[in-house]
Amino acid sequence: MTTSTPLQASADLQQNPLISFGRGICDYSQVKSSDIKPAIDFLLAQAEKAVAQAVDPKTPASWNELVEPLEDATESLSRSWGVISHLNSVADTPELRAAYGEMIPKVTAFFSSLGQNLALYQRFKELSQSSSYANLSTSQKKVIENSLRDFRLGGAELSDGDKPRFSQIQDEQALLGKAFSDHVLDATDSFVHLVTDKSELAGLPEDAIAAAADTAQQKGLQGWAFTLHFPSYYPVMQYSENRSLRRLMYEAYVTRASELAPQYSKGKLDWDNTANMLEQLKLRDEEARMLGFENYAALSLAPKMASSVSEVDGFLTTFAQKAKPFALKDWQELSNFAKAELNIGDGLEPWDIAFASERLKQERYSFSENELKQYFPLPKVLDGLFQVIQTLFGVKIESANLPTWHGDVQSFSVKNAEDRVVAYFYLDPYARPGKRGGAWMDDARGRRELPNGEIQVPVAYLVCNFAPPVKVDGVLRQPTITHDDVITLFHESGHGLHHLLTQVSALGVSGINGVEWDAVELPSQFMENFCWEWEVLEKMTSHAETEKPLPRELYEKILAAKNFQNGYMTLRQVVMSLTDWRLHANFDAVNAKGQAVLELSKSIADEFNVIPQPAISRWINTFSHIFAGGYAAGYYSYKWAEVLSADVYSAFEEAAKLTGSVLDEKTGARYRQEILEVGGSRPAAESFKAFRGREPSIDALLRHGGLVTQ
Ligand SMILES: [Zn+2]
User: Fold this and answer.
1) N or C terminus of the chain with fewer C-beta within 10 Å?
2) Residue among 71, 287, 449, 492 flagged as catalytic
3) Last residue of a domain, which of 544, 562, 580?
């Protein structure tokens, strides 16, 4: 046991709700913004002390004496900090925001210093080379391996001569990434197109016209103003019958942050990202070489599931070739339709695509979203979701009485077959003021074996932003959600299950911790599949008034609309992924000049896309995912995870051929065991293979997306 004694919390601090819950569950309703600073200062000091103890040569380099006390202290800090950032996301107040903002720099600095702590790196290395290492569990070894890898990727093995340059590269990259997104934002903000004659707005929906009038008014203009922000721009592309308006907006949009901007979008030359992209690619290349990798793509794969640069390139190329015939078919269908119905006989231009597609969709695949929504009352949907989970994974979900942060929030326990609680989760379903938009799953507590041998069970937050129930004639109506909302709920619950059903005891790799990030969307996208199954929908739907289940006819319609233009859209995503990949793998960044980035993107589009990249398009200059968003050499992972999840799901479809139901318990139990329970404790590629009995195949995704010849 360690000789260090934890810092003693004063009586005041012991009452602090951010500390008093210890390893238990926080009482969110008791947290005041004035609790934040004292709690975090104390927990930070405690964590610093644990770090000092860990790097002390007198501390034996063993799991129990080195890793565990450090984990104890950093987990306490992370958990309290997690409560605060959660509250900041779901129950924001000006006081809370201020107190949170004040502490962000300190907490961020602590965690980044941990990653840069070379003395700590040495201690972890000692542990990995010690005789006791062999006795550690697979999960514990994985935690150590991951830490050593992250230290190395952070430059820990570089010579003292190289270290200053390495950190300079990091700083320069951060600045360039920031400048890139600033340029995109400034270019987007700077453009306004004013329409003064209402007849030019033909085809636009009322709400888009009202929004344009509002924008004009805010800018002190008369008429209707359109901007390049998506909610203003896209309705024009989708609905405007005015072809020259569409063209004007399109040209402004695709030339943002480029050398053509002054000509088309009134942007400034200073916002041209051409040189910025080259500069970033050069720095990434240099960083990769310093760390001993051939290129940045290879470096990016170190913590990912995909195993080699050529594997990813091959995956994307095959995908593109498979999708291309279907993209061509979609293109043909759209062109014929435009010619016959829209009088666009001289060939579809890029600014006609969204418009013609919307018309075609209306004509062939329309159904009323509002009518569909009536079939999905939230309680019925939740019941359906829980049925799916309980049947597949042999657990029971029951209402729990955990303290929450708002009256709308529900809490649940998950019990195993022996009626023992294995996890808890919260569901916060509705949008409200002070709550951030979107939907997410977050970890409130991870599964871990505590020093006293007890198991700490995991806890998750599932947060959505569904429309809250409304009162009609003074009576609260049943809340109904859209089919998209249902998919979102299943998606987030898939992440939740990954976190909650883990059986791993080492915190660093339990649940979603330590899962390679190109595999992290597998369990979430997997769950989405059930939202399209008739046997699930039939039981999960009940009309808000008539209580009848979803009619089969309406089901057939949503199914047909699901894959509308999927060939075209898939190919587009794959081409973007391939562009990202080859810029980081097959690009001579050191000698590249001028428009080399654009030229590479054009050559890939020309090779794979069904229509050539328009000459003026500078879309790459606004590709923020890879130049400002952490997806560099990672954009492929969207498709990668889709392939994995579809392939996993196809095992359930195969089972259904024998048993008549996709809710097959045996397959569910195997999935739980091989994918969900092991979390990050073994490589995702091995988990996949253990479940499927073979390497991943793209066939199931192609079939689900209608990209196979019948
Ligand atoms: Zn997700």
Assistant:
1) C
2) 492
3) 562
